[in-house]
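Lecture notes, structural biology module. Today: joint structure prediction for complexes of two components.
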Amino acid sequence: MAAPTTLPSALADAVRDESSLRRFLHGLPGVDQVGVEQRAAGLGTRSIKKAAKLHAIDLAISMVDLTTLEGADTPGKVRSLAAKAKRPDPERPDVPQVAAVCVYPDMVKTAADELKGTGINVASVATAFPSGRSTMDIKLADTRFAVEQGASEVDMVIDRGAFLSGRYGQVFEEIVKVKEACGDAHLKVILETGELVTYDNVRRASWLALLAGGDFIKTSTGKVQPAATLPVTHVMLQAVRDWKTQTGELRGVKPAGGIRSTKDAIKYLVAVHEVAGPEWLDPHLFRFGASTLLNDLLMQRRTQLDGHYSGPDYVTVD
Amino acid sequence: MWEYAPAPESRDIANLKPNYRMFVDGKFVEGTGEPLKTINPATEEVLAEVSTASASDVDNAVKAARRAYDRVWSKMPGSERAKYIYRIARQIQERARELAVLESLDNGKPIKESRDVDVPTAAAHFFYHAGWADKLSYAGYGPDPKPLGVAGQVIPWNFPLLMAAWKIAPALACGNTVVLKPAETTPLTALVLADIIQQCDLPPGVVNIIPGAGDVGAALVEHGDVNKVAFTGSTEVGKIIQRQLAGSSKKLTLELGGKAANIVFDDAPLDQAVEGIVNGIFFNQGHVCCAGSRLLVQESVADELLEKLHVRVSTLRVGDPLDKNTDVGAINSREQLTKIKELTESGEAEGAQRWTSSCPLPDKGFFFAPTVFSNVSQAMRIAREEIFGPVLSVLTFRTPDEAVAKANNTPYGLSAGVWTEKGSRILWMAQRMRAGVVWSNTFNRFDPAAPFGGYQESGFGREGGRTGLEAYLDV
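The predicted structure, tokenised, for the full assembly:
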């Protein structure tokens, strides 16, 4: 198996062959379910007020991957989403832009045209999203198509069937090849933690994706319940932190699906701040995969600045 | 950088009064002892003046308790007693915020702990024991177990309200009446509990609360008409009480100091073990008798664990106890702070390696930054003596037998923690730990249904659960 980057010797050994990889992943410390859930709930009681809250709201807006992944998507829908990405609150030009717009591959061109020169990334799901059930060739073609169309970020899904049956080498190879197919585009590896079920699996899949060269590890497609949860994100944040300790490299985390309110988003930011560390409070290293979250952030932002709540009629519905 | 803005809980909620009086025979009365001033350890300002009991006040309180016992409480059916106890539990919930803020002001513990642990657990103890009041015949102590009479109870300053609940709830459920002395530095929440008890219309004299210093406690436990003594506090005072009571017919339970081992094996869930270690020693500023003050870690993971621990401890926020984001509050008193400093200096002098969090500390008040000592050996004072502060001593071991030997090598034996993903090892260790409580893959979890108590110099008798009823029944 070919490691994508130069790894420290201990980690290079881990990806030498299938059995080394298996040994490495199963040698990772376990995750105690009760403990991690207790910690996540405990950190969830942090009280973020006033200037800290306003800062968190703007930070969260700048971390949103504004997403539409519906069978019913049309170029018109994608264009209006792109407009929203550029000016989330048209009456308030000081609101930051979002980090990216996330669409299906056939919508990438539309989004890229709209976002040219804005600094907003176009992310595309690929590799037979959301199930990942197709051949390697098709997954790679899917990826190449998205990048050719102008995607600067690719959100791939792992083969959960292969992972759950212990074929870690296969999952590893897939990620490596998709990463190659991405070229300069950033790769986010969707673990679909709702199908992995246990925190031990989440930790193993996180490390597998990091070893294979994923720039981001992402919780979910949004098509499977449960999608992102706080404790799962804790486990993944711990993985990127440990990765940095061992390699010096910074990798990102993206919870996706089910984060709808500002209150939730702030709980995630507190986890980023205190589990991974302040360095990760950056759109290059943390994203929210969300569609409805942005409007709640905008409403809460107005509430903070105006001193009163104005309601959903004052933000745009796209 | 993202700084959390201050998020203080309003101190007005505490409904603080300039004067507090003792509670005897259903009434708040002036004590004839020298009044004491209780201070806020986070600011060193005086919070309130509290009247204290003299020897004659102690006698009056015990007489009131005796009358209430003879005339009302011992004759009342359990189902009726239960109604009163349930009422107290509900009133604690009703006034939870007031109690939490007052506790943090008086004790220095962070509001998140008084709000999420102390007050809800205190209510839970009353709820739990209320349920026993009419079911004592089924507790395994015979068909109709009888109460003991008047219970004299002396509690410490580390969990002022919660310890009052631990003491009062089982005593009342079993049909005893109570004279309780709260700690000198933290009398306020016990007196609000007295207010709750008054509002719940408990018959006068069933519960009496008499603040004061050690001499009041001594007069209470020595009193000839007290049938049962329950003490939570230092081993030193516990020994004095035991000597005083020798030869008397008084029943005694003691819950004293500890020097618990938190044992981490190399197959432990390391990130959660780090959380458990932090919770074990930095919860309540380490003012916990069952604190996991000795970390025993298997050598093969010691470096990794210690590095993770330093990173995690650095994120602890030390400061204003009323700020909702504070993790570690104020040390309860100057005296305690001096003791912690003295013992940490001995650790350095004896050659242990000191690491202290670089977190900022407030200018005023009694604060101590979280501290971790590594390279500690069994012979050092910091490995043997109870520090009762946010100071962790880290020792290593190589084999499970060595872990058992080191963990048990202490005159104490209150609690222990075992961290491993191997179920069989947890059971093997739990059998060998000389400790009243053994937590596996967690630490400092309290439930009224689980008995709590110690071995050796950590005391005897159990509190909580079915087992805890024995201390208040004539069996």
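Point to remember: The interface with chain A takes residues 1-7, 112, 116, 267-272, 275-276, 307, 315, 324-325, 421, 441-442 of chain B (CB under 8 Å).
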